[in-house]
Write a structure and sequence with these properties.
60% helix; eight-stranded mixed sheet; 22 helices
Amino acid sequence: MWISARARNALRRPAFITAVSIVTFMTSLLALIIVPQQARKAAAALRPPSASRPDTESTVAAMTEAERQVAAAESTLARTRVDLVRLVSATAAATAADTGPGGAQLSSTVRTQRDALAGQIDLLGKLIERADNAPLLGSYRALAQSAPMQADPRVKQMLDSLVEIERERDSYSAVGGVDPVFVALTARANELGRNIAAFAEAHRAALRKEMAAIAPAPSAISATVAAKPPPDTLATLKLRDDAIVAAAGVASRLSRERAELQQLDAREERARELSAVGASPTAILAAALVFGAVLGFGSALFAEMRRPRVADAAEVEHVTGARVLGIVRPMAATAERRRRAADRAAPPYMDSGGDGHQLIYLNVATAGSSSVMLTVTGDHPSVSAIVAVNFAAIAADEARATLVVDTDSSASAVAAVLHLRPSEGISAAARGSAEWPDITQSARVGRDRTIDVVPSGSRPASFEDLAGLLQRDGARLSRRYDAVVLVSSVDQVRQALPLSLPVPDVIVCARAGQTHLSDLYELVVAIRDTGANPKGIVIWNAVDPSVAPSRPAAAPVRDMAEAEI
């Protein structure tokens, strides 16, 4: 899935792929055409005659037979040595079988006790290995409930605690989500399980000492093996050595013949290269096209794998730990949008009825919330402005008094999206040269709905002035408006500008195939570090918007309304 996501993102960069492909195509085409082809005359003099090549078929056949004889002799010698080792082991085992540490014969009672201890040690070993390979509560519980551990009251007490903790953890798990109590219970249960495993290790060691004090384990080798006569390996060893000497002689002869053949083959290969004829123009053109396309896509994929970009919602949530509120896709061209004059006069990126924008609004403005305050930011100011304006339009459709404030004076994206007339904007209010009524404009977002907009202004104000203005008038704005949307740059959000509002909720806009996952993760972490609340992430899954700057002489809103009437 990760490779598939990287490939999709690589395909989203057609300009880069095309540029690399064209350069590679031209380079490959020139290299294939300019290759020299003037060495055909020297090929005839360099090519060796066929009569000079030695015939190695008989030598290879002799070498195969010699290798077969060596393999057979090695196999016979290996079997003889295995029989000898078995005989020695069986003799040693028969000597030590059923004897105590002093060499005395064991009684039936001691033998029974020894077998019981061996069974307990084997059972504990299997359960401990199971707990090590799968450190789950079931493994620890089975270890504590085993027969060798039942006699230890400490293990029984820890087993009762483990069962109780597991019961409580299951009750939290049924609720769903990640709970600190659930995590604490899991950690405590794992600690008890490790303690049980430690007691089991100690008990197994004690059983081993007790078993060693009684008698060693009986040998499993049959006594009949020890009764066999010792095999004679001298004759087999002599046959193996003779076969190796014969094979070495044949191998030396074959090596000389092959060295001579390699020299002749090198001359033949050189002659073939000199007399090679170039490929047809069609083949050369096709090879250059294929190589260019492969290298172009490969370069884009390599760059994507070195620094991955946003691919889909699941990957974004996994990397950042924040929820994806919605995915904004390209607007569908419908006849209804051109039917009414209000829709035709609306900005081109107004799509408040789209599923992506509707889902963003539903995730932020939950049922029952009387006031909504939100900061929208992202690596592309126009994308942030479009998301914020559509959010405000939906809020206006819900009969909320809505205000959109643009604090990013470097882009002035909100004024460009809504085609507002130029004004001093919030920068003038931050410097103290204007008041809110002087800088507030109205923008139509529907047939009978408008929103209030405060542009950023042409002269940027300092961050301290902006933060002071919002801290001073934030409470008053929340009483005047039901929804306040702040459009800020990434640097302003990193400097904790959302904390100037009574509700420091922030949504981050990321572009599919453009925004780097590392940058998005660092921004979300920075928002959390400042004390703000990263409400979620919006994925812009469309072409980057091309928003024109504000027109210098746009008609007022009331004139638009009169013209429509």
